[in-house]
Design brief:
The chain is mainly alpha-helical. The protein contains 3 helices and no strands. Helix 1 crosses helix 2 and helix 2 packs across helix 3.
Length: 61
């Protein structure tokens, strides 16, 4: 039960982290879509995953 609660906390925190980033990045047109894949990516990798998504957005898209 404790592992499920910990995983749920990480998912919710990742969603809020992406939402907060999108509020700031909207002015610079660097918005990352909030979907299941990006939330799980940030959930499992943490801040390096967030930086990877930002770099992917800048370089590829």
């Amino acid at each position: 039960m404790d592992k499920i609660l910990n995983c749920l906390k990480r998912v919710v925190f990742s969603a809020f982290l992406l939402y907060g980033y999108n509020l700031i990045a909207a002015n610079f047109n660097l918005v990352i879509p909030i979907n299941v894949i990006t939330i799980l990516f940030v959930c499992f990798l943490g801040s390096p995953g967030m930086f990877a998504l930002i770099l992917f957005k800048i370089t590829v898209l």
